[in-house]
Amino acid sequence: RERKERKLYSDDWAMGDEEIEGYHTFNLDQKITSDKFTGNFVKEMNDADFSLSYFQKNGFNWPLLFKTKEKLGIVVPSQEFTINDVRVAVGSRRMLDVMDVNTQKNVEMTMKDWQRYFESKDKDKLLNVISLEFSHTKLENIVQAPTVVRQIDWVENVWPRHLKESQTEATNVLEDMMYPKVQKYCLMSVSGCYTDFHIDFGGTSVWYHILKGSKVFWLIPPTESNLQLYEQWVLSGKQGDVFFGDTVEKCERINLFAGYTFFIPTGWIHAVYTPEDSLVFGGNFLHSYGIEKQLRVAQVEDTTHVPQKFRYPFFTEMLWYVLERYVHVLLRRTHLALPPSEHEKLLLALKEENNMENNNMTNDSSDPESKHIHLTRYELHGLKAIVMYLHSLPNSRKSVPDLVADPVPLIQDVKTLVEVHRFDRPELAMTCKPVLEWWQREPVRFGVKRVSSEGQCGGAKKPRGETVNRAPPPNLAKIRYRRTKCRMCVPCTREDCRTCTFCIDMTRYGGSGVLKQRCKFKKCLKPLLPERAVCFVCNLDGHMFYVHDKKPKDDSPSILMECSICFKVSHPDCLDSSNAEGLVHDDFPMSWDCPECVSEGYDKEYKNTRVTGRISAVSSDSSCTGANVRKSELDGTVKHEDDGCDDSKEGGDHYNDESLATDEANNPHCTNSSPIKSDPLDASHAVEGGGACSNAFSASDSASLMPKPLSVVGPTTKAQEVTAM
């Protein structure tokens, strides 16, 4: 039978009383001041003594604390960096997973709403942000992990580079993720926040730099007994009643302050308290010096039923790539089915590497040990553990990557590798050089378009008629200028209507401020190039001065022109017009088709795509400035529809038909039939010929009403002759 109404389901029943009234029943203040948690696990080091050789010699088994960061290779913003700067870098609309401290549950919030909460003085809840991953945002370029982390991170040295470089999505949506995007996190916590005991996903290690504020950590080593106690504690469901640090033999509490850098090894169970508002940068990484413990943590996650959303992305796939990289580097055999472009880069890199090795052999042919790469015991035992772990997984969870053509020969090669290197000497493995390292590539920064294998951004371009083999248009200008308002046309000089969608959303009128757009009726009809625009040939501005020079006051218009095809800004006299003359656009200021594009025929080939974009920007519904005006195809008259004349005080008030007819009858400037004899886009004509009535056009008629008028620079043109008639 059909259901007449859709059923609604609520999860309120799943919330226990302790989640509603408060999460913890133990006294957290007593845990902060107690003398009980005085272990001796954390090792304080000098930043100058920290390098890759430390991991090769000792592994990564104990937490490390650095009070200075000059020699760590870490890059973070200055102390003046604020939450507002984070919002500007990642975007106001970025959705955050925010933890409610009292319930330890996640809620979603925009970055703008989070900033408002963080900076407010009266907070009704304790909220905490610990999972803002900001790779592929503007913030990515001003934060860099320590040098050692970049040398051993599997994402940097194991995951296929072309997959990571193809990532475009800034958020951590798993469907759009091309690599484990867990390298750069921003943690923003208000005073009083507490995160209960946990193990970082996938057994990842953590680097952690406190930019502002302070933190209190409770640390528990990942011994087998402690891990079993942790599993029991999680499965018991009594985390709010029991402070896990009281149940283990040893637990250390440590205070971290602004400027400290902290490293947490694989599998360490820890809780965090925030005594004051804090801003922290950090990142998670898998590496080859704690593989066995990483796999043990993966088993703990299975036992405690951790949802996939809170696990390390592509964990099993990463293990396959680790095996392949070791086989590739040490046995010179590849098992990856790379795309053609990447395969060519690989062959070129191998050729250069062989040339370097041949040179080294001629210089030092007497030492056979120099050719052999020694592995540490952490790496050898880890490779064995990976093979055993993958073998233990059911076929449905083996997750063999598509790039690995056949996993069976790969496993056989790993066994061969372990046999060859089982007598490696640990002291010779301390080279301070990473074993796994990709060949040198051009750095890819956020904001740069990736070029696909077909040679076009975003894929192959669809051929059009006879222009399939035609050369591409000229390169875009090195600098694109954002045009500014002319401040003279009717839309620029009017007030906000307070009735359109954008006005209603403005914070000044009580809206949320999400859209961040000016009033629909205030979009400039004649936007100009900014004063800082210069000619790409002579580097002079529109008044023939250098930008930084002191210039006399000059009200004359700028003589710069911007090409609508290649977007280069230049003076008309600076370009060679011997082959063709530039075509000026009368409907748009400081715009033309430059002689170079005209001589190549790009003005005809790209006319439709360019004109449509410009007309929609000038004369769409969003740029309506009062009365909607239509041109009658029969008599060439102007008819006002729907809205009132701009003589109204608010400019955006709507009238009924009777009042509109009365106003137009009494107003000498508003006539129901006035022939149009000039360019309908000329804002000055709207003021002079129509009084205070503004001139606007509907989007449906814009294409037929306003074709792109062109005029040749020089003699009087046809368009000017028609206008003069």
Automatic annotation (TrEMBL):
Keyword check for Transmembrane helix: no
Assign the protein's first listed, main location to one coarse class. Answer: nucleus
Q: What SUPFAM superfamilies does this protein's entry cite?
A: Clavaminate synthase-like (SSF51197)
Q: Where is the composition biased (Basic and acidic residues)?
A: 635-657
Catalytic activity line of the entry: N(6),N(6)-dimethyl-L-lysyl(36)-[histone H3] + 2 2-oxoglutarate + 2 O2 = L-lysyl(36)-[histone H3] + 2 formaldehyde + 2 succinate + 2 CO2
Extent of Polar residues compositional bias: 664-676
- Residue intervals of the JmjC domain: 134-302
The UniProt keywords, alphabetically, are: Chromatin regulator, Dioxygenase, Iron, Metal-binding, Nucleus, Oxidoreductase, Transcription, Transcription regulation, Zinc, Zinc-finger
Q: Where is this region: Disordered?
A: 635-683
Q: Name one GO cellular component term.
A: nucleus
Is Zinc-finger a UniProt keyword of this protein? yes
CXXC-type domain residues are 479-525
Needs which cofactor?
Answer: Fe(2+)
State the compartments where it is located. Answer: Nucleus
Q: Which residues form the PHD-type domain?
A: 532-600
- What Enzyme Commission number(s) does the record list for this chain? 1.14.11.27
Give one Pfam family: zf-CXXC
What family does this chain come from, according to its entry?
Answer: Belongs to the JHDM1 histone demethylase family.
UniProt name for this protein: [histone H3]-dimethyl-L-lysine(36) demethylase
This chain's source organism reads Hirondellea gigas
